[in-house]
């Protein structure tokens, strides 16, 4: 590989790119600001020097590490050091182990992603395909119970919190009425916040406010830059100290790692800002539609395998403002009890009746269906106009997968319509990243409506709803967004186009994965459509070879699948209680005691390699099952997951969190880390 | 007999000992003597009370044992079916199709939506014809769309932040640029604080339910936008309506609410007035000083939706508060659209720190949605800088509005409800002159006031316009204007879903990006189209 030439942008490694245009492609928009060949060479030698000092063992599956180099090192330095005085002083700084890969790449391996944004991982052993084993039953949602003393102490914790809270309120109101003025009627105005309603917020949530709304800066990629803050008054005010900390980010919804400030997608977005500006000025039906919307909608429809799709500028609003276009009075919505707030918002606005079934419990769903169809509408007993079952593909707090195969069987019998919210599953599941239908190898068109968001896997914003052409046209006219909400902006549209196209690959097509890929649909099994035709993208949008060929997209999918299973199974093997499907990139780890949430968060953040986590508690979860939620990304390397596992192992011992499998079956963290591929495959 | 008692003896013994141990342990408990004494004396004084307390205890246990969600099976309307019957009913049931196919008219509606090739702006190119048109349809009031400086800042932000924020504000989605924009908006308006939502439309429908709960009282204008109606619907509060932009009617309703409360001697609940600065439905402007006076007098909080007035009126585009010189602090919740006012994306609510903090926990579309892409947030901040430093933008916009009104006001086949300073101009077809010489006089005839509990005004029955014909005619006008190179749009509505069916109208959106000459020329085309099409009708 010619060392001085500007390099293409394969994310992982690209040994021999067949397309010669890759070499001229970069010249105008080199990602790494390497001014000259000399600077590149010096970067190489620096990287080599670092590699010699690094402690990395030779991985089994990578080529020998004789002369190692990292193309991105110099660009990384500039980004890392920006606004960070401490690292300026010491030159390059990798004290937290986040800036440089543990295993330096070899000279043949060319990474053009920033390691801090999208980790460098060349080991092909750490890849998996996200796919349902045909014929196997979908695991139901099992709530594993902790020992009784944990349950008891959890209840007692809440009891103490509530009692102390009330005592403090009682005393506080008498001793310092000043701090309660916003809770009592004043000058003839009722308080905005009633004393009772805000009790939970004031007395329980405020105590752990340091876990929430942490301000950050930069890209929410593999790592994230925290703006440090302190609270001098028990979390009533938060003061930014002005310093920053880089932390390993296992919290953002960045499943495929498209949150990147560099790379083919960002270049495409830059191009569109120059061409289109940042706004399309107005609602879709009132002069805010552009050709980009048409192109993106067609690509989204192609991606999810539906006839047509409509996009909206906000994920929440896709549900809350478009469900009313589907159902109305005289219709029934059957909703999973753990469905997202936006779905509840939308169904409430629609005026339809709502019934709920137990989370992912198909028996409960069937019993409910039999009841509602036989009883008809309340009081009048007239038959329902239509019944819409709304489930989520992947539940954001539990990590469970909807049991789509069984729901589809029920659908045949009970003739309801099925709406699947793929906010978290689109892009993140399935061998082709097309969501739960792809995961279960089900033709997407057997589902009536597929809805999803672009915030998560695609690193963009907004959402889509897809279905038959006539249905989506109706939604365009009758949904609340068409006439009233601003259209999606060109930069966001382009990010969607570029990231989606790179998952699909742009024709010429991908070499087949393991046979069986094509466009032929035989009865029963669905075979996924091929890559996006180049004509379906705007002609100015040129993706680098690795993106356009789909190799990078496929690597991202496979890395995500590996990381998800590795973390999930690793935590189980360490003895933790986790929820959800092992293939889910959302991995909830149960903490139970409310006091442990704060501790867990802080202990993870204060490590040598800081890790930031999301802790969720009541009311987002049931009272006892407070949890920490990891969101795995394709941007994480296997070593990053190791770091998380080691941290959990230590913290878990201190906080007494290991209540899962028995001591005898547990593995040590070293054993898990060593046999990662085996763990992930379990 | 003897044998039975013998066999039962161990049992009796056991009961006896366990009773004794129970008594023993109870006596050992600290304070048990007090309880015992209390129960004894209460039983001695009033044996009835013991019975009552026992019943209460049993009732409490029974209630606790009941399942939380009462199954419908116990309801009197529930019919018991056998499994076979249910199977038959299931087989019999045929649902309606999920979505009815579009009618020919709806298809035509959808097909007539203009699609722009390339960037939008004052003179975009259309996909359908490939021609460049003058744009009086898109919302680009201050011409910030396509601003080179904003583009440059957006690209810089992209290189540092990437595109998406990948998380809700609560979980690592709060970026420094979001906090900057919030501060910029608050500073710009003179409010204490502000909160950012990621879509303009969803802002108000989230702000309303964040504050207004069941039992609270909302007094709202009958002409408020669809988004506000949805917010009110989701809030489940008690709503009283006052006549569209009629502050006299508002005062009556406020007094009525107060009277009602005093009569009922109910507790003090939160009370809100919800209205818009410039109404989305017809471009009417509210008299803010008078509104503020009423709100203080009757002790209501004011939720003011400035979606169409923020960034369009006032010397530098600060909205109604600047226009009327009212401090923004006097508006409790000032809602605006970043998408409309600053040509970016999203919305905001400005107010006191308490008001803003409350929404950070209770605003559904704030809490449950990913935050805005950082580059859009920086673009908006840059937009504020531009508005601040170049008041001439607003002067040009107002000149263009005046020029447009000067032409349109002289057309006699239309009526324009919009305020003369409103950047959106709604055009109604003038009703046949037989009804009254002065339609406005008829509307204000001294009839009884409308029922505040009903969203429809009393004179709704007398509305003499025919929605379908007018829409058709107006669509003809739109197409005629487009043929002459001016893109305008009908105000699109969700017929059948709106609480009050708005009258069909053409909605012009003026922009400072066009010169006065260009505006006059374009509005001239609209005028010709109106005269031609409406003249043909008569």
Low-confidence stretches of chain A: 1-37, 54-91, 509-524
Order of the strands making up the biggest sheet of chain B: 5-11-10-9-8-6-7
Distance N to C terminus of chain A? 38 Å
Count the beta strands of chain A.
15
Domain count of chain A? 4
Into how many domains do the coordinates of chain B divide? 2
CATH superfamily of the largest domain in chain A: Type I PLP-dependent aspartate aminotransferase-like (Major domain)
Q: CATH superfamily of the largest domain in chain B, please? A: Type I PLP-dependent aspartate aminotransferase-like (Major domain)
Main beta sheet of chain B, described?
7 strands, mixed
Level-1 CATH class name of the largest domain in chain B: Alpha Beta
User: Beta-strand level of the residues of chain B, as a percent range?
Assistant: 5-15%
Most extensive chain contact? A-B, 129 and 119 residues
Cofactor (chain B): pyridoxal 5'-phosphate
Family (chain B): Belongs to the class-II pyridoxal-phosphate-dependent aminotransferase family.
EC number (chain B): 2.3.1.50
InterPro entries (chain B): Aminotransferase_I/II_large, AON_synthase_class-II, PyrdxlP-dep_Trfase, PyrdxlP-dep_Trfase_major, PyrdxlP-dep_Trfase_small
């Amino acid at each position: 590989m010619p060392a001085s030439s500007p390099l293409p942008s394969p994310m992982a490694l690209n040994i021999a790119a067949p397309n010669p245009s890759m070499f001229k492609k970069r010249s105008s928009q080199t990602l790494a600001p390497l001014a000259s060949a000399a600077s590149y060479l010096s970067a190489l030698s620096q990287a080599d020097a670092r590699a010699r000092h690094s402690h990395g063992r030779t991985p089994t599956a990578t080529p020998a590490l004789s002369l190692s180099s990292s193309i991105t090192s110099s660009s990384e330095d500039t980004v890392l050091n920006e606004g960070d005085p401490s690292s300026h002083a010491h030159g390059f700084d990798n004290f937290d182990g986040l800036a440089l890969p543990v295993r330096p790449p070899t000279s043949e391996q060319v990474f053009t992603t920033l390691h801090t944004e999208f980790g460098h991982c060349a080991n092909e052993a750490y890849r998996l395909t996200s796919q349902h084993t045909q014929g196997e039953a979908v695991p139901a949602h099992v709530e594993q119970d902790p020992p009784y003393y944990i349950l008891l102490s959890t209840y007692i914790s809440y009891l103490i919190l509530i009692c102390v809270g009330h005592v403090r309120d009682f005393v506080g109101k008498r001793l310092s009425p000043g701090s309660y003025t916003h809770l009592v009627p004043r000058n003839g105005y009722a308080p905005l916040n009633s004393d009772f309603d805000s009790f939970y917020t004031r007395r329980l949530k405020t105590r752990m406010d340091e876990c929430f709304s942490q301000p950050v800066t930069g890209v929410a990629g593999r790592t994230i830059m925290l703006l440090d803050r302190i609270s001098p008054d028990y979390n009533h005010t938060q003061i930014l100290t002005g310093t920053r900390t880089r932390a390993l980010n296992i919290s953002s919804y960045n499943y495929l790692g498209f949150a990147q400030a560099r790379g083919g997608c960002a270049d495409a977005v830059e191009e569109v800002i120059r061409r289109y500006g940042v706004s399309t000025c107005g609602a879709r039906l009132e002069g805010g539609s552009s050709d980009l919307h048409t192109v993106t909608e067609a690509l989204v429809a192609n991606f999810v395998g539906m006839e047509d799709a409509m996009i909206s500028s906000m994920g929440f609003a896709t549900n809350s403002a478009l469900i009313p276009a589907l159902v109305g009075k005289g219709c029934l919505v059957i909703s999973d009890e753990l469905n997202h707030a936006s779905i509840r918002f939308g169904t409430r606005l629609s005026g339809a009746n709502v019934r709920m079934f137990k989370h992912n419990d198909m028996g409960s769903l069937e019993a409910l269906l039999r009841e509602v169809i036989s009883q008809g509408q309340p009081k009048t007993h007239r038959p329902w106009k239509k019944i819409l079952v709304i489930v989520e593909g992947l539940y954001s707090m539990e990590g469970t997968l909807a049991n789509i195969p069984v729901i589809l069987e029920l659908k045949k019998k009970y003739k309801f319509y099925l709406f699947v919210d793929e906010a978290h599953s689109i892009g993140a599941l399935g061998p082709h990243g097309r969501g739960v239908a792809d995961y279960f190898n089900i033709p997407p068109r057997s589902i009536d409506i597929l809805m999803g968001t672009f915030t998560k896997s695609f690193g963009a914003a907004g959402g889509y709803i897809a279905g038959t052409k006539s249905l989506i046209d109706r939604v365009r006219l009758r949904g609340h967004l068409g006439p009233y909400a601003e259209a999606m902006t060109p930069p966001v549209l382009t990010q969607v186009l570029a990231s989606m196209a790179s998952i699909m690959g742009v024709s010429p097509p991908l070499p087949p994965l393991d046979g069986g890929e094509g466009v032929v649909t035989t009865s029963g099994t669905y075979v996924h459509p091929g890559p996006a035709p180049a004509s379906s993208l705007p002609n100015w949008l040129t993706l680098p070879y690795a993106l356009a060929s789909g190799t990078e997209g496929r690597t991202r999918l496979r890395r995500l699948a590996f990381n998800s299973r590795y973390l999930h199974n690793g935590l189980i093997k360490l003895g933790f209680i986790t929820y959800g499907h092992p293939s889910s990139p959302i991995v909830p780890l149960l903490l139970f005691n409310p006091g442990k949430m704060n501790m867990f968060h802080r202990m993870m953040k204060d490590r040598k390699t800081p890790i930031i986590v999301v802790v969720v508690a009541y009311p987002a979860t049931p009272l006892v099952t407070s949890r920490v939620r990891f969101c795995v990304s394709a941007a994480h390397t296997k070593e990053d997951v190791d770091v998380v596992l080691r941290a959990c192992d230590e913290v878990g011992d201190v906080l007494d969190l290991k209540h899962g499998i028995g001591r005898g079956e547990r593995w040590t963290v070293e054993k898990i880390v060593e046999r990662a591929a085996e763990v992930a495959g379990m | 007999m003897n044998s039975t008692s013998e066999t039962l003896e161990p049992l009796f013994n056991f009961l006896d000992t366990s009773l004794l141990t129970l008594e023993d342990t109870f006596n050992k408990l600290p304070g048990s003597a007090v309880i015992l004494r209390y129960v004894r004396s209460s039983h001695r004084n009033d044996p009835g009370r013991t019975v009552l307390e026992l019943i209460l205890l049993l009732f409490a246990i029974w209630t606790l044992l009941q399942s939380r969600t009462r199954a419908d099976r116990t309801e009197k309307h529930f019919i018991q079916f056998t499994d076979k019957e249910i199977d038959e009913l299931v087989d019999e049931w045929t649902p309606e199709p999920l979505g009815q196919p579009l009618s020919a008219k709806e298809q035509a509606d959808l097909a007539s939506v203009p699609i722009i090739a390339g960037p939008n702006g004052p003179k975009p190119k259309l996909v359908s014809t490939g021609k460049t048109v003058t744009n009086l349809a898109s919302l680009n009031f201050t011409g910030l769309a396509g601003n080179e400086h904003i583009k440059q800042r957006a690209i810089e932000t992209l290189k540092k932040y990437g595109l998406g924020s990948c998380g809700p504000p609560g979980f690592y989605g709060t970026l420094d640029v979001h906090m900057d924009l919030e501060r910029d908006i608050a500073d710009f308006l003179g409010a204490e604080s502000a909160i950012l939502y990621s879509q303009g439309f969803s802002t108000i429908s989230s702000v309303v339910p964040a504050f207004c709960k069941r039992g609270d009282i909302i007094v709202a204008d009958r002409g408020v936008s669809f988004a506000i109606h949805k917010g009110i619907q989701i809030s489940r509060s008690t709503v009283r309506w006052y006549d569209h932009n009629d502050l006299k009617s508002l005062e009556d309703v406020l007094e009525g609410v107060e009277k009602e409360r005093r009569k009922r001697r109910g507790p003090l609940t939160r009370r809100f007035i919800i209205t818009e600065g410039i109404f989305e439905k017809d471009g009417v402007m509210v008299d803010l000083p008078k509104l503020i006076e009423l709100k203080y007098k009757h002790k209501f909080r004011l939720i003011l939706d400035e979606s169409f007035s923020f960034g369009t009126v006032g010397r530098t585009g600060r909205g109604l508060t600047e226009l009327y010189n009212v401090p923004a602090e006097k508006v409790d919740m000032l809602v605006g659209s970043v998408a409309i006012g600053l040509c970016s994306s999203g919305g905001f609510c400005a107010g006191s720190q308490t008001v803003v903090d409350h929404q950070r926990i209770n605003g559904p579309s704030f809490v449950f949605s990913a935050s805005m892409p950082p580059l859009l947030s920086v673009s908006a901040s840059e937009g504020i800088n531009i508005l601040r430093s170049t008041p001439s933008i607003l002067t040009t916009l107002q000149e263009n509005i005046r020029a447009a009104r000067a032409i349109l006001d002289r057309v006699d086949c239309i009526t324009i409800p919009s305020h003369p300073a409103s950047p959106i101009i709604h055009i109604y077809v003038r009703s046949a002159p037989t009804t009254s010489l002065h339609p406005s006089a008829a509307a204000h005839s001294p009839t009884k006031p409308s029922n505040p509990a009903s969203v429809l005004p009393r004179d709704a029955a007398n509305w003499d316009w025919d929605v379908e014909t007018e829409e058709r005619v107006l669509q003809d006008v739109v197409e005629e204007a487009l043929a002459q190179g001016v893109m305008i749009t009908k105000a699109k509505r969700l017929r059948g879903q709106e609480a009050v069916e708005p009258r069909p109208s053409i909605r012009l959106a003026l922009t400072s990006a066009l010169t006065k000459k260009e505006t006059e020329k374009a509005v001239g085309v609209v005028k010709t189209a109106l005269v031609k099409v409406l003249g043909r009708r008569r």
